[in-house]
Amino acid sequence: MPLLTGCSTEEGSGKGGTTSGKELKNLLPTYVASKVADPDIPSVNGSSPGYTKAPPATELVDSVKGKPGHGGSYTMFEPLWGTPPPKNNAYYKAVNDALGATVKLQPQDGNTYGEKLGAVLASGDIADIVMIPLWEMGGRIHGAVSAKFADLGPYLSGDKVKKYPNLAAIPTAAWQMSVFGGKLRGLPMPSRPLNGVIPYYREDIFTKEGYQVPKSPAEFLALAKEITRPKSKVWACDDMWWSAQRFFGCPGEKPYYWVEKDGRLIHKVETENYLEALEWCRKLFAGGYVHPDAVAGKGNDAQVRFTSGQTLIWNDGDAKWYGATFEQAGPHPDFKIQGMDYFGPDGGDPVIYLDPPAQIWSFLNKKLSKDQIEEILALANFIAAPFGTKEQRLIDYGVEGVHHDMKKGVPVKNAKGIKEVQDTYRFIVSPQASVAYPDFPQMVEDYCGWMQRMGKFARKPLFYGMQIQEPNRYASLYTPFEDLAKDVTRGRKSIKDAQRAISDWRSGGGDRLRDWYAKLLDENGSGA
Hints:
- With 528 residues, this protein is α/β, with parallel strands linked by helices.
- It has 2 domains: 21-36 and 62-194 and 357-433, D-Maltodextrin-Binding Protein, domain 2, CATH 3.40.190.10; 198-353, D-Maltodextrin-Binding Protein, domain 2 (3-Layer(aba) Sandwich), CATH 3.40.190.
- The protein has 20 helices and 21 strands.
- Strands 5-4-6-17-9 form a 5-stranded mixed β-sheet. A 4-stranded mixed β-sheet has the order 11-14-10-15.
- Strand 4 (73-80), helix 2 (90-99) and strand 5 form a beta-alpha-beta unit.
- Residues 1-17 have low confidence and may be disordered.
């Protein structure tokens, strides 16, 4: 991958500032690939590697010698979707014992995390480690990163990272996204290439009913009509707006919402693709094919509607592929979730823009001492251990006999493990993204196959891999379009209303924002 430029604001200025390519190269950690375990399914077309088999405990590798910590105690502020584990549980105790230090996790409701995060950063009473996802990186929160969190460059840039081999094995693209305010500040959770939106469908029910997977927007509408039976409490789908944008080749979200045409930057909302996606989605709602709760905007129960069979098609992030499979395996062994292949507007090849190489980071409080930062980085090196290591088995499955049992050579969480072992430590840092679920090898094959097929049509968006903070005066310019899309697709507003909003966006600052990005593109190039 070519070296791209990171961009963020200057310290506290709220103005656009960039880090030059040469400066960025000096900031980034040296990449040293892990050689612990070869994947069962190698990467094809940029897909993540897959692991369908679990090494026996006797064959797991020690990637960290001894306990990395020195008895320190640190607080961690992070989101959690679902029921929080009990405090001081056996899993936390086991991990902290292996770390040789204490990480006091403070999980918050993920659905309201942004509000709590903003309040905490404004108060100054900040935990030692704070997780911030890209989707919560509003203007003020993004700007606070430089003011509140430590520069990790002196510890990780260049060959310094070799002190922490598991951190050195994190791909360069993910580290590049971790540059904020001209400094390497974030510990990343590397992303899979197309992780943001997957159109899932109930393959078990499709097979039973003889439904054919659609290969065009028109076929999708026809199938939706065939599936929907309100009297039987079955609807075709949930809100498909995110998938609709990909069906019609729209670019992604901020800052990837630009395309270049005839030497000029065009914003996503200015494209015909965007209006076509709105109109197609409006037809889904108008036809009555969308579940009434989704029409009402009740998104939190979308997975329940899908797994209960009230909807047969649903779009969400890639984590739900395993999550729904695991959840339903016991009570409903015939349940089968599958990813629908994307298609173009006319049923031809789709145009799919890659997701950011990292979308979640943890940051270390600026008030920590050098010794404390080094200890936390040593803990992070343990947590970033790849598949096939003792550390990874502990972080992902807890203690054998307590949180998981080996069944047919595969670690399977028991009731205690399901309750206590959640993705809490992974929010500190994660290894290179893979699909490692040996308890459901067919699901691994399905997901890797979907990635490989879709990877043929994937392309890098403009500004790919760049960490960009727009000037504060433009921070809220795009925000109204989220509600606008809901109103238009549900018939409360028209396409003409959308066109007027686009015109207002241009005159209200959109054209100036375009000039700002054009200058950035001229100065630094792009990853397209």
